[in-house]
Amino acid sequence: MTTHTDAILVLGSTGKTGRRLVSALRAADRPVRAASRSGEVRFDWFDRETWATALDGAAAVYLVAPGDPAPVRPFVEQAAQAGVRRFVALSGRGIDQVPAGFFRGMAAAERAVRDSGAEWTVIRPNNFSQNFDEDLWHAPLRAGRLALPIGSVPEPFVDAQDIADVAAVLLTSDGHHGRVYDLSGPRALTFGAAVETIAGAAGRAIRYEELTPREYRAELLAEGVPEEAVGELDAMFAAMRAGHLAEPGDGVRRVLGREPADFGAYASRAAAAGAWS
Fold it and tell me: N or C: which terminal CB in the chain sees fewer CB atoms within 10 Å?
């Protein structure tokens, strides 16, 4: 039996954007179903028996796709049949500039929501500022060295809170159907400058080192990173080196009516919390 509560189902609710989105929606007194494999509502992309329970009563879905595209379209079709009227899909800036074999889950999510018959919006953020303190580049920075194959091409890193705030508006207000928003920070800075900003905020020596793509692949594989993940990082950095992600996007300003958070403010806040101590 389905309960019609007009709830918002947040997939990936323990992730960088998902947990911030759950907090933002609840602060606005919106009914939320916080779903993940270890969340309040159990959801597993590869266990279809969890889908119906997660969708029960949901009118909108924040869609964070898995790397494997196979379950994405079936889930979106089931969600629409269950009464979901709006999707907001998290994708990636420059996804249309990388070879078709990479970031297949996000690409499948974009296609599936467009074909769903429901209202849909796609958000395509730049690299998250929180990649520096929550996962991807956190351990290298704590060890005092971040080494990447990016050169001097800048990146307008976006704060995960801004992504969550944008998603909250898109999920709860009209006028955004059929739109794709590029989300970034207000200014682009090189990875070298980002590391310098972090080192200054943390009050310790951290250096940035430039690698060739081949050197980078070798380091990742030596660390035990799976080949597929290495390939996706390769593709992402190739798109970045080509400048496809370098110009700040205007999505945060268009949706929220304010400027996005600056990287320096993020670094100061994360350093004060002990991120790189």
Answer: N
SS3 181: strand
Nearest by Cα to 93 from 5, 157, 186: 157
Token digits for 31?
């009914």
Rounded percentage of the chain residues whose pLDDT exceeds 90 = 85
Tokens representing residue 121 in the block? 């919006």
If DSSP codes are grouped into helix, strand and coil, which group holds residue 146? Answer: strand
Residue 130: both structure tokens together: 């929180």
Helix axes 16-27, 160-172, angle to 10 degrees: 50
CA distances from 251 to 41, 89, 166, 260 (A): 30, 14, 8, 9
Q: Can you say whether the dihedral through the CA atoms of 248, 252, 258, 262 is positive or negative?
A: negative
Buried b or exposed e, range 9-29, using 16+ CB within 10 angstroms: bbbbbebbbbbbbbebbeeee
| CB neighbour list of residue 66: distance below 8 Å, 6 or more residues apart | 45, 46, 72, 105
* CB-CB neighbours of 145 under 10 Å: 13
pTM: 0.94
Please write the tens of the pLDDT for every residue from 126-143. Answer: 999 999 999 889 999 999
